[in-house]
Design a protein that fits this description.
The complex is a heterodimer of chains A (113) and B (114).
Chain A lengths: L4 E3 L2 E4 L5 E6 L6 E7 L5 E8 L2 E5 L7 E4 L6 E5 L8 E8 L7 E2 L3 E5 L1
Parallel strand pairs in A: 2-11
Antiparallel strand pairs in A: 1-3, 3-8, 4-5, 4-9, 5-6, 7-8, 9-10, 9-11
Chain B lengths: L2 E3 L4 E5 L4 E3 L2 E3 L4 E8 L5 E7 L5 E3 L5 E5 L4 E6 L8 E9 L7 E2 L3 E6 L1
Parallel strand pairs in B: 2-12
Antiparallel strand pairs in B: 1-4, 3-9, 5-6, 5-10, 7-8, 8-9, 10-11, 10-12
The chains are: A mainly beta (113), B mainly beta (114).
Chain lengths: 113, 114
């Protein structure tokens, strides 16, 4: 069964450093998403991406964040200068043309020290 | 705007007992509703979904949920809890006409007591 994959599974970084989180969505999906879950809190929407551009973003997704689909398979989330409060689990999701169900990856746990 | 309220951040049931996890939603348009399960240190796995077809939806692992528009609810049930059901459960809503971002509830942690 096709699935969304994410790398790395865990990342530790120093405050102020740049991080890139990688996702490989399901191959025939068209819509891609990033969510985050701060420890003990709910899953929060960050951004959605379609046709090589951002279609929607939340207030969390400020200028420190960017997304890219550098090739036909990867979908990345970049945080330019990490802050302590960026420590969270980051989930990638994708969905097909019907956009009904979002399929989530296993997440990347980011720890900013 | 959409939102989801999950009543009870922690629910404990005995093995073999009924599981009932509550979810109420708010949506200005017909919603799509979802339940996801998250096992420790894992991602979100889709349990079931409502997308305007049958109001009683059956999912994996014996779970089901009923969409009640009059009550704006989408409660998750399972007749008999199993130890392996212990996990975090998230209810989510999206707009049926755009199908874009999901709005998640705060989650309910289910403990199953042997």
């Amino acid at each position: 069964e096709p699935e969304v994959t994410q790398t790395p599974s865990h990342q530790v970084t120093q405050m102020g450093q740049e991080v890139i989180l990688r996702c490989v969505p399901i191959s025939n999906h068209l819509y891609f998403y990033w969510y985050r879950q701060i420890l003990g809190q709910k899953v929060e929407f960050l951004v959605s991406f379609y046709n090589n551009e951002i279609s929607e973003k939340s207030e969390i997704f400020d200028d420190q964040f960017s997304v890219e689909r550098p090739d036909g398979s990867n979908f990345t989330l970049k945080i330019r200068s990490t802050k302590l409060e960026d420590s969270a689990m980051y989930f990638c999701a994708s969905t097909g043309g019907g956009r009904e169900t979002q399929y989530f990856g296993p997440g990347t746990r980011l720890l900013v020290l | 705007a959409q939102s989801v309220t999950q009543l009870g951040s922690h629910v404990s049931v005995s093995e073999g007992a009924l599981v009932l996890l509550r979810c109420n939603y708010s949506s200005s348009v017909p919603p799509y509703l979802f339940w996801y399960v998250q096992y420790p240190n894992q991602g979100l796995q889709l349990l079931l979904k409502y997308t305007s077809a049958a109001t009683l939806v059956k999912g994996i692992n014996g779970f089901e949920a009923e969409f009640k528009k009059s009550e704006t609810s989408f409660h998750l049930t399972k007749p008999s809890a199993h130890m392996s059901d212990a996990a975090e459960y998230f209810c989510a809503v999206s707009e049926s006409d755009t199908g874009n971002q999901f709005y998640f509830g705060t989650g309910t942690s289910l403990t199953v007591i042997p």
